[in-house]
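Continuing the series of single-chain predictions for the mutant panel. This is the parent chain; the variants come on the following pages.
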Amino acid sequence: MPKAEEYKNKPIELSEVTITQNQEISPEVHLISWKRTHDFVPGQVVKITLDPAVPPRIYSVCSGNDDQEISVLFNVKEDGILTPRLSAVIPGMKILVTKPYGSFKDGKKPAWWIATGTGIAPFYSMFRSGISENKTLIHGVRHLNQFYFEDELEWAMGARYIRCCSQEQSCNTFPGRVTKYLEELNELPTNINYYLCGKALMVVEVRDLLISRGIPYENILAEIYF
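Parent structure:
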């Protein structure tokens, strides 16, 4: 879920949509979908709630801009206000959502996409929208079953799809966090953009690391999840 402060002044105009799919793609990680009613730019977000009296939460759109449905990806938090209930919705049920909005958008310039956990959602949206040709995706997780959309990304991006796993190992993954992977690179390209999406600690650590390695601050764009 992206950080709320960036969008706190946005007007909340909720519309009712009907759930078409709720898939648990990994333990306690759900992908829910509904019929698309608005256009969006990959990287944008929507606000979601089940009750008008409950403040909506922000989620990155996870689908491509040519898909017929809009999807979001989220972790279930036991003490969460929304995610336990949202994980229980079934096709045919109604939820309340806003139009997509936000400025975390990529373009044609070469870029590295760096994500942890469900922070991969906006990059998967960009990938499905056909703008991954000159991009590198670095995805960090704790466990091997958290590489969401792994088969599709590996087939399409090949060596430009880099998996980092901190608590389990396989022959296809880097053994450690994304920060360790970046630290061990001999050099980092300075003429590209770096997009970061994940929890605040990761974003701050990676941003500081990139700047210390000569990456201009203005080339680093971040979306913080919490």
